[in-house]
């Protein structure tokens, strides 16, 4: 299996982690600002720290590392089988801004919000 297309591993496993509100990929805010989200380029986070703050959250629980999303039962259970290998939040608590909701819907992403 080739890992040419994979997400950057978080550089810091301390309090600096955040998760993409669309795919739940976990990295540091600086990593999202430097390279965007490998699954959600349509959110335009690459090079835009303000956009990263809109499209990520620190309100997540648990984390899983996915090496082969197509064969992992856990990635299928978490709806990650079409995502790139990387670290993902198990659950994300977020209220998605209306403009981000619209972009996600236009790109075939379901919105999972906390109640």
TrEMBL record:
InterPro entries documented for this protein: RPABC4/Spt4, Spt4, Spt4/RpoE2_Znf, Spt4_sf
Residues of the signal peptide: none
Compartment list: Nucleus
Pfam family, one: Spt4
Keyword flag Nucleus: yes
Domain Spt4/RpoE2 zinc finger: 17-93
Protein family: Belongs to the SPT4 family.
Identification of the protein by name: Transcription elongation factor SPT4 homolog
Organism: Coccomyxa subellipsoidea
Lineage per the UniProt record: Eukaryota, Viridiplantae, Chlorophyta, core chlorophytes, Trebouxiophyceae
């Amino acid at each position: 299996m080739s890992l040419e297309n994979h997400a950057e591993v978080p550089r810091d496993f301390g309090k600096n982690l955040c998760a993409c509100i669309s795919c739940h990929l976990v990295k540091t805010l600086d990593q999202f600002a430097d390279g965007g989200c490998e699954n959600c380029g349509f959110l335009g986070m690459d090079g835009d720290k303000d956009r990263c703050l809109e499209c990520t959250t620190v309100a997540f629980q648990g984390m899983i590392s996915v090496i082969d999303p197509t064969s992992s039962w856990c990635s299928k259970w978490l709806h990650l089988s079409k995502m790139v290998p990387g670290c993902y939040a198990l659950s994300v608590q977020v209220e998605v801004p209306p403009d981000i909701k619209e972009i996600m819907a236009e790109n075939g992403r379901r919105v999972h919000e906390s109640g």
